[in-house]
Task: inverse folding
């Protein structure tokens, strides 16, 4: 990232000219913290919204480089270990002064509640200690679209993404009953 101009680092999608991507380096350990910070601050001045996809884990070096106004979204699987890890990430974000964090539970299946792993969705939220943004169900149509290199246009997961986008836009969108997610 060091010395790279935004124009050389960012590219648009052919089918979606208003969406731009800044791919991460393919080599492990290939991001220098200060260079990333400089680049992300420059990118933030040029675009309406910047979404940074950080690797799983609690290495907070890159998180610290994000502007103070950054809103974080922690995406986690529904299993208890992943939910507890999301809570650890939330605690670490608070430690470094990043207070805007929301939770998306990915690949959710009602069997987690039906089998008694959780009593209800509130158990998951309480374990993670993060305010819920949305729940994306397991949806084979999404997996198949991704495998074909296409963007899914319908399905339960697409409906969940739509609800999440509306919430990010400030709309009050109720969460469906757990059975219907």
Result:
């Amino acid at each position: 990232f060091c010395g790279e101009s935004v124009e050389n680092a960012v590219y648009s999608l052919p089918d979606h000219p208003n969406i731009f991507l800044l791919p991460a380096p393919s080599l492990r350990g290939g991001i220098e913290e200060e260079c990333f910070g400089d680049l992300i601050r420059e990118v933030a001045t040029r675009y309406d919204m910047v979404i940074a996809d950080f690797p799983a884990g609690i290495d907070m070096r890159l998180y610290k480089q994000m502007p103070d106004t950054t809103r974080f979204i922690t995406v986690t699987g529904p299993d208890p270990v992943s939910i507890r890890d999301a809570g650890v990430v939330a605690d670490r974000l608070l430690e470094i002064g990043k207070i805007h964090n929301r939770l998306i539970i990915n690949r959710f299946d009602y069997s987690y509640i039906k089998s008694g792993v959780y009593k209800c969705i509130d158990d998951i939220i309480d374990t993670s200690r993060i305010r819920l943004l949305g729940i994306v169900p397991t949806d084979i149509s999404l997996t198949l679209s991704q495998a074909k290199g296409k963007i899914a246009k319908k399905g339960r997961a697409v409906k969940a993404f739509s609800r999440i986008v509306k919430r990010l836009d400030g709309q009050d969108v109720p969460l469906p009953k757990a059975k219907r997610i």
